Amino acid sequence: MAAAEHPAGRGWVDRIPPWLLLACAVGCLAAYLFREIDEFDVGWNLTIGQDIVRTGSVPTIDRYTVAGDGHPYHDIHWLFQVLLALAYAAGGFVGVSLLTIAMWTATLTLCYRAARSRASPLACAALLFAGGMACIERFVPRPEMVTFLCLAGFLLILLEGGYRRPLACAILIGLQVVWTNAHGLFVLGPFLVGCVAIQALLRRREEPGQFVRLLGLLGALLAATLVNPRHVGSWSYAWLLLTQVGPKAPSVLKALGELSPTFGAASRGGLAFPFFASLLVVVAIGSIHAIARRRLGRADVAGLLALLGLLAASLTGRRNMVLFALVAIPMGARLFPWPTWSRPGRFAFAAVGVVGMVATAAHALTGRYYLTMGIPARSGLGFTPSYYPHGLAPFLDRIDFRGNVLNSNALGGFYMFHNYPRRRPLTEGRWTAYDDQVVARLLAAPFGAVDFRWAVDAYRIEGLVLGHGTDEAQSLLPVIARDPAWRLVYYDQAASFWIAAAHPKAPPPLDLEAPLAFPMSDRVDDCIRLEVFFSLTGAVVSRIENLERATRFEWFRPIHLKRLGRLQVTLGRNGDAEGTYRRFLEERPEDVDALNTAAWLASLRGDTRRAEALLDLALRIRPGDAELLGNRRRLQGATPAP
Question: Over the stretch 547-587, which tens digit does the pLDDT of each residue have?
Fold first, then answer.
């Protein structure tokens, strides 16, 4: 156990570093917790929760999507969905945000308390910060929040030996019942108690009878897992979660970002990964040190077993890093040889930590974290104004559209929430609600003419809901934009809606080159998605208007300036193009292609001197380039290159 950091007799000055570091850690984590909702699955979880509250029953047959209609549906998340619906009823999406914040605050508080009994406040504040930051990618309203909260509660009780008290055992059993009815990883509860039982077996001479009592608790927990609408069937969903990861997982699931490899390129590019890696180093050093020095405490064997098990789980996919991070907070406190700080050492450690935490918080509060990660959200509460077509449902109501749609899967939950029961999406994120063969073919439908025609005919598709930038839109938009069988009747900053031209209520088609008829939020994210949409549909004039708007933002401005300049050249707007390239070169003065194009534009209006200067600069950057040398010779011959 680490030495106490504040021996008797020390004054309030010595308490400043740990409390300051803890306050900064809490503030930094709050900067990432207070974020707009952009989660794909919140729509369908909320819709089903509202349906359960309204009907008073848990669904067993799917009725929420066209493709899953009539298929058996094991709703293991029903309790979380009800909680989500109640939060929404109390405060709309702000209520959903506050529910997420409350559950994560409780989770991290329990982990901190489990750590605090075995390490100094400074060490615990640092562990809380690292552990919380390793979890930031899962600060979203999903059923897994129940797993994280129950996991933290189990760890606090089991690592501190609370299972010796009847009340604590009753709490564990109650948590297990809640866990079983909210998320498929409820099996971790019996696993954690099993780790403690193994430790008791190894130390049965020191604590006779403890192993038998733990076996009784384990049996009670296993019985608690049967207290759910499907009873033993709940374990089948837990097995499904296990098979969703690893080398034998279906190819459809391997493509999901949250199931990508923990040490893969996508995961390493995220902000959470370095904190996950730092925790891995801390517990590895601590474990080796504790085993070598034979300093394993009463619960440390059980903690090590739990640590190894959850580490193995975390290596199965990016989304499971959280499982390891939460147990690493208390186990890092128990195992790592934390030093006894001198007063200057405490202040120095706290000062470095405060600077790092403030900078990390600023990364979120300025929006740079979300822009870097491609997340259409910012700091705040409620639902993001970006990424989702908020005006689509009212539009469909106005034209009284009631047909089936083929939708981008990412928009399925949103479409369901705003339209159910009068309109349903074709699919959304509940892969267990469909047959595997149906899932595979439906996901292939946007990418091949044969599968697309099959989906349209089989499900009587009369509309297409395509999110800008989604894979479905990338494949379908260039085709349907030229197909007279489909008519564009709605689009905004997030998605487009296409209706079958033969539909009796089909409105007149929209002119993509007309000025935008919807308000844009003050975010570059919207411009980026519209750039994809306009480029795929060939709307050059609207694309230019959108890129001009995008260049007002700092983020990605050079990219947008270069694209804008090329389009202006394509339309023969050479004067505008030269001004655009001038602005681009102020930010990227060594871009040879831009220098070459700017020189050509200058030569067209007779400014040979500027054209030569630009080409000379380009040749200093790329000497001997044949194209540049040829253009330079043509200038000297007073013959501008086309």
Answer: 999 999 999 999 999 999 999 999 999 999 999 999 999 99
Q: For the chain, what is the total number of helices (H) and then of strands (E)?
A: 28, 4
**3-state class of 34 per DSSP?**
coil
Question: How many other C-beta atoms are found inside a 10 Å radius of the C-beta of residue 395?
Answer: 15
Whether the Cβ atoms of residue 477 and residue 533 lie closer than 8 Å to each other: yes
CA distance 447 to 462: 18
Tokens found for residue 470: 């989604």
What is the model's pTM?
0.90
Q: Residues of the chain whose pLDDT is less than 70?
A: 1-14, 240-259, 297-299, 432, 638-642
Helix (H, G, I), strand (E, B) or coil at 161: coil
Q: Are 71 and 414 in contact (CB under 8 A)?
A: no
The two three-digit tokens of residue 381, written as one number: 């509460």
d(C-alpha 139, C-alpha 359), whole Å: 19
Query: Residue 41: phi, psi to the nearest 5?
Result: -80, -10
Chain-centroid distance of CA 632 in Å reads 50
Structural tokens at position 143: 């059923």
SS (H, E, C) 74-142: CCCCHHHHHHHHHHHHHHHHHHHHHHHHHHHHHHHHHHHHHHHCCCCHHHHHHHHHHHHHCCHHHCCCC
At which residue do the structure tokens 């349906």 appear?
51
Question: CA–CA distance from 562 to each of 101, 533, 580 (Å)?
Answer: 41, 18, 8
